[in-house]
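Q: Predict the assembly, please.
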Amino acid sequence: MAGTNLQTPILQVDHLSMKFGGLVAIGDLSFTAPRGEITALIGPNGAGKTTVFNCITGFYKPTEGMITMTRASGEKFLLERMPDFQITAKAKVARTFQNIRLFSGMTVLENLLVAQHNALMRASGFTVLGLLGLGGYKDASRASIEKAVYWLEKADLMDRADDPAGDLSYGAQRRLEIARAMCTGPELLCLDEPAAGLNPKESLALNELLLGIRRDSGTSILLIEHDMAVVMEISDHVVVLEYGRKISDGSPASVRSDPKVIAAYLGVDDEEVGDVLVEVGDTSVIEELDGVAPVAQGPAETSSMFEGPIADTVEEAGGETIVPASPAASKAAQVEAETAAKSPVEPKGPAQ
Amino acid sequence: MTAISDNTARSTSSPYGEAIRQALYAALLSAGLFFFFIGLESTQDISNRLILRSHWGVLATVVALVAIGRFLFIAFVLPAVDRRRANRGPIAVVAEKDQSFLRRHRFKIMIALLVLYPVIIVSTVGMQGSLKWVNNFGVQVLIYVMLAWGLNIVVGLAGLLDLGYVAFYAVGAYAYALLGTHFGLSFWILLPAAGIMAAFWGVLLGFPVLRLRGDYLAIVTLAFGEIIRLVLINWRDVTKGSAGISGIPKITFFGWFDFNVSSPNYIGKVFDIPTSGAYYTIFLYYLILALALLTAFVTIRLRRLPVGRAWEALREDEIACRSLGINTTNTKLTAFAIGAMFGGFAGAFFAARQGFINPESFVFLQSAIILAIVVLGGMGSLSGIAIAALVMIGGMEILREMQFLKLVFGQNFTPELYRMLLFGIAMVVVMVWKPRGFVGSREPTAYLKEARAVSSTFTKEGHG
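A: Predicted assembly structure:
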């Protein structure tokens, strides 16, 4: 953490927008990920978290906005302009996937060797020298296996090294995917729901692994997570999304007590926000309801007096129909409106 | 389930009595079935009268075959299967630990056998008799082994379904035929040239189809194969169209000696041995063997290099590949180019061997056969593919030799005409028996403690 104030953030997202046809998945999102920290990106289902990831790692080209990656060397990369494979190769951003994408027919070790493709490719003289048995490919190959072994030990997969990746248990596959991403030598590691489907013990091991990565390799981590235990435990910085917009940004503690976040997650009526605030100290409320589709999206909720006019939901603009991601249903927006109208409602929540 | 256990229980008490009983039932059943199908035939004579002819001999043969088959199955095959099933667990462990000499050195033994093959043939059937065996079996099978190994890089490793592989074979063949006849260049210069030319066309095909996956890729590569063939037919000024190119120069042994009887450097004159056509065939056999082994060597080498691993990773998951910083475009192009290069080598060899080529040799059926060999052998497995080529191509040639079938099916029966039918049946049987080909498992390219083959349940076929 030391010195981060003096350093430029490793990732800076400015005014990022992503539209699919008329649907706005992300609208004018700006946030920064400080260097050497774990930044968590949270929000209800469909908030656009994975879309943000896909924009950062080049799998989507954003409609608008700028994503700046600053490497430790000071080199700057505009990620939105780079092809996806170069983002990993040059800008050193690695990612994992929500639905695990391992090379299931290759062994665990081979998975980690594929991740070191670019370094090995150079060492093998772009195949030509390696094919003839010239050059330093043998040394590079040995070094790559050593690096793989290092990450196998970190991910606690040493005894499975020669087994096919598809044969591993779910939790082991998750850890292998993280180890594989780390083998590309990233400066920023993007993890898409690494704790999904893990049991509490595996979840704990994952926390250890991630904290170890941050401590030992200095890699910054950007994390999408639904498991609040993981988020609150390990992250230094939390960004909350709802309907493609940022509703909160700050330390885990400040985000946890933000009325907009609570409203977004629990989808309560505005009158009840205050009552919920009383319970804020009890994080289990959030945990219990996380993962469940927010009630805010249900039709019953639209009967709220804060519902916007019809023109708000389907808007004719320049001939093309734009469907904003339903701001009328956004609980965070309602809270915002309310706090603006009246004076701050309930500051009687427990002290943070 | 109960019927099976019933059977085994009975067969253990008295396998032969049970087998004879079952054989009798089978004979009765088949006699009843085939009585009208095979035993009787109605024909018309010159005056349009219907005549009933009988084939009791054939009927008896078929019924006897059924009975014997049933007897053997019940008496020997079923108990053997049961025994193996019962012993499967312990046997597998023992086999892993205690590998026999034959098993450990099976590849070396196979290569030694291939090298000795012409010697064995010549010493058993003589110089003149060896022609058929070395040429029709040896050279013919090895050409397909090489082609299938080349296609294996594209389909088996990189998982890109290529239905137009024969186009590269054609490019190699025409490159050698045209440059050889017009400029009189040596085979040894034109062999790499043909490979490079084919690789160039491989890249050319690769570019437009990079974005396509699965069925779409297959269709475009199929079309590419046809385009090349149609160009060869219609570009008469250069390729002489369907008439083809003849008088393609024979290969010389690096200029030291050659195989033209009239030439001063004829092998017979150089070594003072009697004139024979078999020398060239034997020379061709060793040449194609060397080319095929080169293909295998390069493939094995490439699999352990990053590019080979990237091919297999591409087959497993393309998106994950890109997330690891692998340039999938280049990776696919190298697979196309290297696969095509070996097709080009094989094509140049084919042209030199035939001495005459025309577009009829490069029809879609050829692509289909090569692909069938790759799939039958087990995608990615060199040894499986070699076995599949031997079974399919060697099997086709063997059919010509099976004159005894005429005794069964009558004098008008020509077994060659049924080869595609038998081919199809063989493929269906193999695919039911081993859906992932002869060798479905995959050898890892690197290991820490021990190399364990990856079962076919985990590997993917690729879809792009």
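Chain A touches chain B at residues 57, 59, 84-89, 94-95, 97, 101-107, 109-110, 113-118, 120-121, 124, 127, 130-131, 137, 145, 149, 161-167, 180-181, 184 (CB under 8 Å). Residues 1-6, 282-289, 291-324, 344-352 of chain A have pLDDT under 50 and may be disordered.
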